[in-house]
Request: fold
Amino acid sequence: MTSITVLNWITNFGDAGMTLPVAAGCALWLGTSDKRQALIWVASLAAALALVGATKILYAGCGIEVRSIDFRMISGHTMLTSSVWGVAFGLLAGSRNVKWYRMGAVSGLALGALIGFCRVADGAHTPSEVIAGWILGSGIALFFLRRFFKQPRRMPGSIFAGLGLLAVSTIAYGHHAPIQQMLVMYSPWLCNWFEF
Reply:
């Protein structure tokens, strides 16, 4: 395997084509115990995605960047990996023992850092962009998990949820969401429309 192939293999774990179905699986599982928490999870992730999308539109369509820190846009792969896998692993670990959710979250955040490293190594992002993505994704995961596990709770069907998340991630692995291509295609139009 070449280094590019290894980087792509690892980076696939952070693509929206994989992380969004896993995030939806987490929301469905959360909905079985607390629909309000499921909505908070979805809203938090949607807000982060909107922020990432806004930075990509501003760069791709309007040419706005912060040259002093080599920042063009927030890394979506890094943000999605940190938030989605952080929450998924945190929920799985916390469903067995509430005290373990932090270990699960740390695993997801470590995967997010690895994805960020790969995004820099393959030239897709700069260090400042992946750091921003990692901080945003980690913040969402930790905010949500601390709030969720603040009170003792049992997550029903943790074995089935784990198997379901494994099945979803296995099916979704390697599929790429066309979000980046759409942003590049429509960003100039949006910037012209808003007269940036």
